Amino acid sequence: MTQRPGLELRHIRYFVALAEEGNFERAAARLNIAQPGLSQQMLKLEEILGVSLLDRSRRSVRLTLAGQVMLEEARRVLRQCEATVEAVTRAARGEAGRIAIGYVASVAYTGLLTEVLSQFRLTHPGVELQLTEMEMRLQLEKISEGSLDFGFIRPPAGMPAGVATMLMLNEDFVVALPRNHRFAALDAVALSILSTETFIIPRQPPDVGFHRNLLLACEEAGFKPRINNMGKDFTTIASMVAVGLGVALVPRSLDCVQLPGIVYLPITACSVTSHLAGAYRKVEPSPTIRSFIAHCRKATTHLSVEDATGRAAVISRRSPEAASIFRV
Questions:
Q1: Are 140 and 134 in contact (CB under 8 A)?
Q2: I need a surface site. Which of 90, 213, 308, 310 has the fewest CB within 10 A?
Q3: pLDDT tens by residue, 72-112
Q4: Cα separation, 166 vs 277, whole angstroms
Q5: The pTM of the whole model exceeds 0.85
Q6: Which distant-in-sequence residues (6+ apart) come within 8 Å of 21 by Cβ?
Q7: Which of 90, 302, 292, 269 is nearest to 191 (CA)?
Q8: For the segment 110-154, what is each residue's pLDDT rounded down to a tens digit?
Q9: CB–CB of 200/241 below 8 Å?
């Protein structure tokens, strides 16, 4: 409807009530106003529009042709007003909008990503989730500059100013070996007996992510690892292990990648674990994004996953010794 000077939403509400009730007295009672006041407002509405909406030649309220069109359009306006109020309210509650989410590929193996996002979708169906696989340091950069809202990452990594993290999952490492390796038949291995092996790692600097984890684990085991091969991602690394190019220290959840020619063995006496964290802006103006951050904080304490042999494994999402390294 075209906006006319003096036309107010209450005029439209009054007119719809009168048309639906078919009687001034009942309409006034429904609106909780005096009947003379309703009559005056209808006259005012007709004056504003310059048309007759009511056929006053009859005792009951009848609509003119213009009044019938007005009723149809007025109902549409009221429905749109209600939808607008609902949309604004939902947005203020963080139940509408869009969230740009980044994740490192290894997160997908844990089940955490799908679990957290599917639960959020159940409670926030009006929120659009935009997912992008992205290298960890690029995620942190984009979160800091505002083009990404939340990131699922594998610390350690340097945090840009204004970015905080929360620990979401803490999982053990296993070692990936070629199936024909001399230790492949063991139930578990000590990392120290692999000191002469070549280790395959993701392409990361020594102070970042899995590269840092490997250095710490091998230092704990009493040796410095020989690193001659780097893989683009863990699927590539698993393939490189399978063809005998080296061994790899990988998160426990990666044993779901069952390629021919590879085995995964638990590591004994290794305190170094892989952390999965959520990264976000410390100061977040969007209610929708704040709702997602709060949802991630409330994630359940444990995540159940199954390895390739069907054994139930439980990966702790909290560890006291690790929690101190995160700015929550």
A1: no
A2: 310
A3: 999 999 988 887 887 787 677 666 689 999 999 999 889 89
A4: 5
A5: no
A6: 27, 30, 61
A7: 269
A8: 989 999 999 999 999 989 999 999 999 999 999 999 999 999 999
A9: yes
